[in-house]
Amino acid sequence: MIFCPLPGTPLITQGFGQNPADYAAFGFAGHEGIDFGIPEGTQVFAPHDGVATVKDEGTSGYGLSLTIDDGKRRSLLAHLSNCALITGQNVYQGDPVAKSGKSGNASGPHLHWTFKIIKGGVVQNKDNGFGGALDVSEMTRLWLDQDLHRNAQYSTEAQAYLAMTFPANQYLKRVV
Fold it and tell me: Does pTM surpass 0.85?
C-alpha cells in the first residue's frame, strides 16, 4: 500500500496526464505526476519505505527534490523548501521527510509527486509517454483510510483529470 505524502484530505491542483501541451517540451504526453496545492513549509511524509536520494537543481527543473526508492517503487517528491534526509538514508512509510516549497520550475508553492515501478533497477513502462511514471491515485490511501482518487479535493482546473482515461501502462487500478 502507498500512502499519500500529505495527511488529511489534500487539494489536487493538477492531475496525472493533464496539460499535454505544457509538458511536450519535456518529452511527456502530459503531467507526469500529481500536484498538491499546499502552503510553503507544509510537512511532507514518505509514501513508502526506501532509500533517500536528495537533489537540488536550484531554480530549474524540480528544484529541491527527494527520491525514495525501495527497488520496486520510486517516488519523487519535488519543489521542496527543505529536506530532512540525506542521500543514502533509510526512510520508512509515514516518516516526516521534507517541507513543501516552490523551488525549481514552479509557478507557486505546491508538492509534486511522481511514482514509478522499478524492476531489477530499471524503470518499467518507460515508453508510456510519461517516462515510466504512473497515475497511482487509486492505489494510494489517504491517512483517513480513504482513497486518494475518490476522496481528495480537486481544484477547478484539476477536475478534468477525473474524467480522463489512461491505457494500462499508464495507470494502476485498485483491484477489489
Answer: yes
